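Appendix B. Chain record.
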Amino acid sequence: MRPIEHEHVIPQLVDHMRPIFDSSPDGVYIWLDGHHWAFNDRFAEMFGWTLAEMQASAFSLDLFVDPADQEMFVWNYQNRVGALAFPATFRFLGRRRDGTAVQAEPSATDLSARRSMLASFCPAS
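Structure tokens predicted for this chain:
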């Protein structure tokens, strides 16, 4: 069996998870790598972007994570989510497009042994 290329996987995952993308009150994204990711409009809006603007961007933590928290965000992914240890929930300081801060709390889980991630984000209370 040939592996499915990422550019084909993202649309399939989005279609499969359409009910989550469309009805979640939270921001949701799927990340496969720096070029292949998808998210719902609530995720884009939470960080001050339109869906179209974010879709036109390559994945970068600079789009939504404050520089001071990027190392911690990556550590949580690499050591908790990507390690398949367990679904991870942590808080980080998000940064909106206009520069304002937002406390965010993702609930992230690994989708496969290939270190891809499904996460939902809500404002931290």
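Further analysis of this model is presented in Appendix C.
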